[in-house]
Design goal:
The chain is mainly alpha-helical. It has one domain. The protein is built from 6 helices and no strands. The longest helix is centred in the C-terminal third of the chain and has 75 residues.
């Protein structure tokens, strides 16, 4: 009975309704009928601000091989132009201007990428919560089906015993 009470409490939690007064069978039926899984990400994406969308786009761009190769090409060009081809070197070795530009870029880019990562972590938490509810629903339903199956098997064994007894009496 303690297990049944625990399952009813879990079902109430999954159904987000603590005031359910129905029995286990009724709650199972409600649980079977109600869709538990939700696509939180789509709903969450609709409510993004312009800054959040921009942060996601920047994180996607800055984390790509295309960006890394392009940036490597820009830095290599900068160094090559300033050491070999230009007579009037605007940023001579040790490339203080280049270091300043890279530092400013990193100072701006890092917080924006962190904002995007925080949002992704929030999405992951919503996914995990959703997965937990779906798993709990599945576990409760499987346990319920198992109980019902066991009771059917017990009833069948009882019927088989009664039939055997009747057959033995008739012989």
């Amino acid at each position: 009975m303690a297990s049944s009470k625990k399952n009813i409490d879990l079902m109430k939690t999954i159904l987000s309704n603590e005031s359910l007064d129905a029995g286990e069978d009724d709650i199972i039926q409600m649980l079977l009928q109600e869709r538990i899984s939700e696509n939180y990400i789509v709903e969450h994406e609709k409510n993004l601000t312009v800054g959040q969308r921009s942060a996601d786009k920047l994180a996607k761009l800055a984390g790509s091989w295309g960006f890394i190769i392009f940036f490597f090409f820009i830095i290599a060009s900068w160094i090559t132009l300033n050491t070999v081809f230009l007579f009037n070197h605007f940023d001579i070795y040790p490339f203080i201007l280049l270091n300043l530009i890279l530092s400013c870029l990193a100072a701006i880019q890092a917080p924006v990428i962190m904002m995007s990562q925080n949002r992704q972590a929030q999405n992951d938490r919503l996914d995990a919560e959703n997965d937990y509810k779906v798993n709990m629903k599945s576990e409760i339903i499987v346990e319920y089906i198992n109980k019902k199956l066991n009771s059917i098997i017990e009833a069948q064994e009882e019927i088989t015993k009664k039939l055997d007894t009747l057959e033995n009496k008739n012989k």
